[in-house]
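Page 47, continued from p. 46.
Same chain as before, 181 aa.
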Amino acid sequence: AAVDGVRQLPPQLPANGPARRLLHGLRRKAVPLALAASLAAAVFFAGIAAWQHQESQDAMQQAQQAEQHLDEVSTVLAAPDARAVHGRATNGALTTVVSSARQNQAVFTATGLPTPAPGTTYQLWLDHDGTMQPAGFIHADGTVPLDGDPADATAVGLTLEPSTGSPRPTTSPLLLLALPA
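Result:
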């Protein structure tokens, strides 16, 4: 009658039985493994944080450069003495040069500029009495401020040059556009 109401006792195992040794061995190996995994996770997350910080810094620098570029372009375009000339390059691109004597700056705009061959780029030039001075690069359609002093320049040139640029034009001009007076 007592069999139904009395709980059965578990079997008695020796103090150093195989199950106890297995459990003790797992604990000894699990602690260092858990520490190593935690350390690896911490290093991984630190690396991700550093990468995100660098990406954020790069994005901020690009935004500042874009803002400066827009300021330079808008200063010329909004100048009360801004003058524009339009032309078509031999490769079919439509171009515009806007200059301001008061700002002593000029900007170059191109639309329909074909992608240059690998290893080449479009280089801009200011013509000072027949001497071409480097005035920057344009890599695709868009607007760029010209480097240099446009005050004494008579024209703006566009050539296809090696991707690092050239001190003097090495190809025939795709465009030689007289600057507005």
